[in-house]
Amino acid sequence: METRLLDYLQRILNSRVYDVAIESPLELAEKLSNRLGNKIWLKREDKQPVHSFKLRGAYNKMSRLTPAELERGVVCSSAGNHAQGVALSARQLGCQAHIVMPVTTPELKSDAVRALGAQVILCGDSYSDAYLHALELQKKHQYVFVHPFDDPDVIAGQGTVGMEILRQHQHPIHAVFVAIGGGGLISGVAAYIKAVRPEIKVIGVQMADSNAMLQSIESGHPVTLPDVGLFSDGTAVKLVGTETFRLTQELVDDFVTVDTDAVCAAIKDAFEDTRSILEPAGAMGIAGMKQFVAQQQLQGQDLVAITCGANMNFDRLRFVAERAEVGEEREALFAVTIPEERGSFKQFCEIVGQRSVTEFSYRICDEREAHVLVGLSIRNRSEVPEITDDFASRGFVALDLVDNDLAKDHLRYMVGGRSPLVGNERLYRFEFPERPGALMRFLSRMHPSWNISLFHYRNQGSDFGRILVGIQVPADELPDFQDFLATLGYRHVDETANPVYRLFLR
CATH topology of 30-48+152-324 equal to that of 54-145? Predict the structure, then answer.
């Protein structure tokens, strides 16, 4: 292995990457450092011209092609970032690039590839499907195949990330955290670090639903996954490379697997320190580092996470924002059962108190019991048992839903429906200034003689909170109810005649 390391060291030192790549900064993440009790450094590969490290390996490979090979053109398969690296390199070198991308690739990435002048071919559901089609095109048209990870020149190009880290931070480093898809980045980074400063740990980070490298290491040979998760599309690889497997098996010290919620929380962490939005693969190093720090109880160490990409689709941001709080353990989600009787709702609100409510959903459905879905902001996971005990002390049964994927993915959006117990119900939308405690103040002003039969609220991060409320008001009390609305002081809209209400809720 020592001979191989020296070979890769020489390849990395002689890599031709800076015609297209920049030496990305190594930045101290001050807020994250303070929270974790370690110095956290971010290697900002998201700042590259194509917002990913991938152009390093692609250009290093393609810059070594002969004029005849460049004339024939190149082909590659990619989930997005390698595609942009190849396309930019092809434009720089004056050759035609044919890029096979999975149909699941975010439109942001495929549009960026087209903008660089490459031909985009969509095929298959994962990188591996696209890879097989690219090989067919290579054979048919005699293109040069530019592998996204399993090529010594590509690996060496990615290894310049490790070279820069050690040049930029010449003090002790405890560990470097690297996201793994096919293994090109971690192979190159580990090869350089272990050749120059072998005492530094190299930790691989994989998604729990796309952990082909970890399963391969545990099995002793490359393993093909039947399916991969697509949230982190940049690391959705069913089969790792032969060369990247060999290097990772020999050189990587440890592995961490992370889930979607943890990655969403890491995207938020990076935003709070850098004001940049990473894609899921780009935030995996941070997520793995946080988990490793907690597991090992590290304090006072210098840790580096490579933020390897920022090609995030805008329409994913809502999902990321919602799941980040759960991933960071800053939101607790409960299903609470309370007696369907006068005063229960007020008692429920008293228990919640001044805690910030992120979500509140209720629909009358039973004459004896009411079931409420409520999200509460918390400082850490240890508060959950305390909140559960508070509910229990009033006779309310609270079910912790933080780890319940069915609740997080579906039920929180489905609470409601028709009810046989909604006589005299009127439906209103309210708006109120969104500030701490505003929701509970709203609830406390509701007249006790009118029963709340439906309630829905979700904090959307806006300056105004929006609530949908069903209230049972006898016909002879409507004038008093109108007076109440006038004195309430909140903008409101009567939706009782809305056809959607009649179709799905009445």
Answer: yes
Model pTM? 0.77
Instruction: Identify the segments of the chain with pLDDT beneath 50.
Output: none
Instruction: Report the topology of domain 30-48+152-324.
Output: Rossmann fold (3.40.50)
- Alpha helices by DSSP H, listed for 142-279, are 152-168, 184-196, 212-219, 242-251, 260-274
pLDDT of residue 440: 67
Is-contact 273 244, C-beta < 8 A? Answer: no
Distance, CA of 178 to CA of 170 (rounded, Å):
19
Q: pLDDT value at position 1?
A: 65
Q: Structurally, what CATH architecture does the domain formed by 54-145 represent?
A: 3-Layer(aba) Sandwich (3.40)
How far is it, in rounded angstroms, from Cα 248 to Cα 191? 9
Given a contact cutoff of 8 angstroms between Cβ atoms, the answer to whether 416 and 456 are in contact is yes
Contact residues for 299 (Cβ-Cβ < 8 A; gap 6+) = 37, 38
Radius of gyration, CA atoms only, the chain = 27
How many H-runs (helices) and E-runs (strands) does the chain carry?
Answer: 21, 18
Q: Where are the domains of the chain?
A: 30-48+152-324, 54-145, 329-504
Q: Each residue of 404-418: pLDDT tens digit?
A: 877 776 677 766 777
CB 212 within 8 A of CB 244: no
CA torsion angle for 243, 246, 248, 250 (degrees, to 10)? -150
Maximum CA extent, the chain = 91
Best CA proximity match to 425, nearest among 446, 449, 452, 444: 452
The pLDDT, as a whole number, for residue 341 is 77
Predicted pLDDT at 419: 80
pLDDT at 199: 97
Report helix, strand or coil for 462. Answer: coil
In CATH, the number for domain 329-504 is 3.40.1020.10
